[in-house]
Automatic annotation (TrEMBL):
Superkingdom: Eukaryota
GO molecular function, one term: N,N-dimethylaniline monooxygenase activity
Protein name listed in UniProt: Flavin-containing monooxygenase
Matching Pfam families: FMO-like (PF00743)
Keyword Cytoplasm: no
Family: Belongs to the FMO family.
Keywords on record: FAD, Flavoprotein, NADP, Oxidoreductase
This protein's record includes keyword NADP: yes
């Protein structure tokens, strides 16, 4: 059975490898020359100095470690991730399934086949191929969200006419080209803060930062009790912590989380311009991960500018960089299919799907990997395993009743007030729920009795995706145990 996969990023690569593992014959269509998606150093959306904001133990596939990053080299660069993905492709011998420079223009279901129309960019010619199944892994960060009107009282056209330049973070590659300029960065998510700290490396560059609401900001390493500073995902993600959090009401969760963020980011309390008042602790306040932002702000290396209109309108800014996020596009699917998927382009929760990847049961033969916000590698890989197992008949589709319950829960997430930044912030729990469907989740109740040491490792200690290769279909218990041991030895060595 043949499967078309759209996209050769982290999601498409794992979907390809898992298709082969399930006996499917994949063809991966990628519009750019090369794999990696966002993490392709040439065509991706990351900039030269960026590092992943979660450690290599979370940003990895369950059965393949970073062979070349030494202990202590925790946060991978774009080049590291690109190399890692290349080694993965080689290890699992899947090079032959990729078709680069092949942009999918249309994917439509007719006569029980997925008809794919793609253009081979080198020749400009259009081709058609037929497949039994379609896996969409085209990512969520597609086009810049509109930014006109974000800074009230500023006419961007006038600013450009008077010599000013406006770009979106999508086009930001290196701080070098901003040397000696007066730059206003708009937005305080991960991209905005990271670009600010990148720009101030350049001599004579004046950097202003504009955003509406204060977020928590912390570095990649955070204190862990009395222990040394450790990668933040080691502290954030464990089953024990997740279960405790699930038992709390929203307000209790907000209070606990904000108090925790205050503890790991004490410097923020000393900086008036971005302090978060305690009376807001019962609300949801997003977290931005950025090294050095707070220290540089304290040392006046850049300025938080709440009213940038005067600066812009009096020609005291040369360039504005908007870091206001992306929208997702699925233009290759016809409008009727998009409607049935309840597609919304704003990239938070793009569709209403079972486990964010399986559409309603009458749309069989179609699946998605990584087309939702919060796409940690672990979840992408589990989604790829689940959809390829369902498509190939190795596990059953959910019953109509389960499907309906799940889709209704997804709709509740979409319309929740206040709106969620990530549809499934309970990352460990969400990953476990997919693993349960694949039947690769260890039985914790049983383990408590039979192997309390392993239970302690899996339940109380930081989460690591290799646990999903210990049991069940496509398990690799020896490798999984070795990878889990490697990880926990590293955790232990930092105590
Ligand atoms: C600036 C930035 C920083 C980030 N930092 C982090 C981080 O630190 N940690 C983290 O976990 N995540 C981070 N992310 C999220 C990031 O999206 C994921 O890490 C990961 O790249 C998702 O992989 P993907 O394969 O789902 O999507 P993508 O990487 O977007 O890959 C999708 C691929 O599909 C291709 N494609 C799309 N449409 C078509 C078509 N019609 N035909 C053919 N090919 C098509 C695209 O060219 C692309 O190669 C970051 C994202 C951005 C933008």
């Amino acid at each position: 059975m043949k499967v078309a996969i759209i996209g050769a990023g982290i999601s498409g690569i794992t979907a390809c490898k898992e298709s082969v593992a399930c006996g499917l014959l994949p063809t991966v269509f990628e519009q750019h020359e090369g794999y990696g998606g966002n993490w392709n150093p040439k065509s991706g959306k990351t900039w030269n100095s960026i590092r992943s904001n979660i450690s290599k133990y979370t940003f990895m596939y369950s059965d393949f470690p970073y062979s070349f990053l030494k202990q202590g080299e925790d946060f991978a660069t774009t080049n590291d991730i690109y190399r890692y993905l290349g080694e993965y492709i080689k290890e699992f011998q899947i090079e032959k399934y990729f078709r680069f420079q092949s942009i999918v223009l249309k994917a439509c279901y007719k006569d029980e086949k997925w008809n794919i129309t793609y253009r081979y960019i080198k020749t400009g010619q259009e081709h058609q191929m037929k497949f039994d199944f379609l896996i969409v892994a085209s990512g969520v960060f597609d086009r810049p969200l509109p930014y006109e009107g974000i800074i009230e009282g500023v006419d961007l056209e006038k600013f450009k006419e008077s010599g000013g330049k406006v770009i979106h973070s999508l086009y930001y590659k290196d701080s070098e080209e901003f040397r000696g300029k007066r730059v206003l960065v708009v937005g305080n998510g991960n991209s905005g803060c990271d670009i600010v700290t990148d720009l101030i490396r350049q001599p004579n560059t004046e950097v202003y930062h504009y955003f509406r609401r204060n977020y928590w900001i912390c570095g990649r390493y955070i204190p862990n009790g009395n222990k040394e500073r450790v990668p933040l995902d080691w502290v954030f993600y464990s089953r024990l912590k997740q279960d405790a959090s699930l038992k709390r009401s929203e307000t209790e969760k907000n209070l606990a989380t904000n108090s925790f963020f205050e503890k790991i980011s004490p410097l923020q309390l000393d900086i008036e311009s971005i302090r978060i008042p305690k009376d807001q602790y019962n609300t949801f306040i997003p977290l931005t991960i950025c090294d050095g932002y707070l220290e540089n702000l304290r040392d006046n290396k850049f300025k938080v500018e709440r009213n940038p209109q005067a600066l812009i309108n009096s020609n005291q800014i040369d360039i504005i960089i908007f870091c206001n996020g992306f929208s997702c596009s699925l233009d290759f699917l016809d409008s009727d299919t998009q409607k049935r998927l309840q597609f919304q382009s704003d990239s938070y929760q793009t569709m209403i799907l079972y486990k964010e990847c399986i559409p309603p049961l009458d749309m069989k033969g179609l699946a998605f990997v990584g087309v939702f916000r919060g796409t940690y590698t672990t979840v992408l890989e589990l989604q790829a395993r689940m959809v390829t197992m369902m498509l190939s008949g190795q596990i059953p589709y959910p019953s109509q009743e389960t499907m309906t319950t799940n889709l209704n829960a997804e709709l509740d997430i979409r319309y929740a007030i206040p709106r969620k930044l990530f549809p499934h912030p309970d990352y460990v729990n969400f990953a476990d729920s997919i693993a349960r469907v694949i039947q690769c989740l260890p039985d914790f109740e049983k383990l408590k009795e039979t192997d309390p040491e392993l239970y302690n490792r899996l339940y109380n200690l930081p989460h690591n995706c290799s646990c999903y290769r210990l049991v069940g279909p496509h398990s690799k218990p020896k490798l999984a145990e070795m990878l889990l041991n490697q990880f926990l030895n590293d955790v232990d060595s930092r105590k």
